[in-house]
What we know:
Number of domains: 1
Distance between the termini: 18 Å
CATH topology: Nuclear Transport Factor 2, Chain: A
Number of helices: 3
Radius of gyration: 16 Å
Amino acid sequence: xxxxxxxxxxxxxxxxxxxxxxxxxxxxxxxxxxxxxxxxxxxxxxxxxxxxxxxxxxxxxxxxxxxxxxxxxxxxxxxxxxxxxxxxxxxxxxxxxxxxxxxxxxxxxxxxxxxxxxxxxxxxx
Length: 125
């Protein structure tokens, strides 16, 4: 999403991948997921994403990530915690499940809005 390199992303996904943002609808299939990402990118070109990975752990074919995801629109930036679970099959992601806290997203949004008027609250890269 951050780089909008959907062909590269598609190449990392199993054809029958399951993508689940816990609490929201599940997407199935690499083609559908990439189609959705492309649609969002085309319809919302002002919307950008960033991610900072804090930790990665793996066991067997499972990879866990702890990270900060950021939603960016111009000078607005909402940072929030996320944890991802990835199941890998034949070198490709077959399951992508993200967990996050809605309260943390809300706090990140408020901080981002306040950061528009109080520069000391803006995240420094």
